[in-house]
Amino acid sequence: MIILNDGMDAILCAGGHGQEHGPVFLMEPPPRLVFSNKNGARVSCAAHGFPPPHIAWQTPDGSQLEDASGLR
Question: Which segments carry the region annotation Disordered (predicted)?
């Protein structure tokens, strides 16, 4: 298993057997994002690898963010 954390609560995991290769980021979130509540912001992250990586968002305490009120 490979776990990468960019320090901004984004985590990427990959694992499996066979012809594995680590994840390659196609799109990384910025290290810092400042936005107003009026306009909002979009944070994107995309990667590929074998097996395909799973991308999830993590809160500062380390728990995985499943759903956040007011976020889409």
Answer: 53-72
